[in-house]
Amino acid sequence: MKIGIFDSGLGGLWVLAHLEREMPEHEYVFLADQAHVPYGERTAEEIVNLSFKNTDFLLALGCQMIVVACNTATSAAINKLREKYSDIQFVGMEPAIKPATENSKTGHIGVLATKLTIEGEKIKESINKFANGTEVHTCIGQGLVELVEDGKSDTDEAEELLKKYLEPLLVENIDQLVLGCTHYPFLIKRIQKILGDKVNIIDPAPAVVNRVKFLLEEKGVVLNDGVGNMKLFTTGDENKMQKFTQELFPNINVAHIAI
Ligand code: DGL
Description:
CATH class of the largest domain: Alpha Beta
CATH architecture of the largest domain: 3-Layer(aba) Sandwich
Bound molecules: D-glutamic acid
Number of domains: 2
Order of helices and strands: EHEHEHEHEHHEHHEHEHEHE
Distance between the termini: 24 Å
Number of helices: 11
Oligomer: single chain
């Protein structure tokens, strides 16, 4: 099975790494739309158009399923994608409000995501559906995506900015933090340092892997049916992305693509 994955940038690589680790038999084509990152500061209309372009590129390479490895693009565009490409299966990312509220003992959870995700309808729907009396404290992580893109995830600069967002959530007595952007798991070391061990951090990737697995099983796609491979593309600077992917996927070249 050939699975296409896109994100505005490097965050989706976190999802790709989880997919590949759990299901190494499949073929993966990953597109980082780094020419247009960050999506979170754009309008929903722009993100829909960019998502169409990303999808066209992945479909032209023969992908049979698309993972929108971006909470922001899921929030702004997944309904439109499903309408336009009605014969293709899309898997999106939504902030994990449900498990967070179920796990919370203090009755307070935090959600850290981009501006567009926090202000979008989808998250409001999830909160209405799943909060069940739990207080959901949302926070826009302005500037965090840029730090990850610039390779500054594990720096004091990142920690200072994270403190600004996370300390007020600690005052609210949260015991769960939902990472509502696929870039944020790359900041997990510094996030954990600020939050300590009383707050559980919810990574967005495992739920997506489970969903993809479930859909493939439902389609009758047999696992262990081939040797997988991976292709990595960026609309931005391929050398910059290559530096980032060196550790995650050491033998895979990144190619530039203009779309
Ligand atoms: N990785 C993204 C997300 O999950 C994109 C953030 C952005 O480009 O602003 O929301």
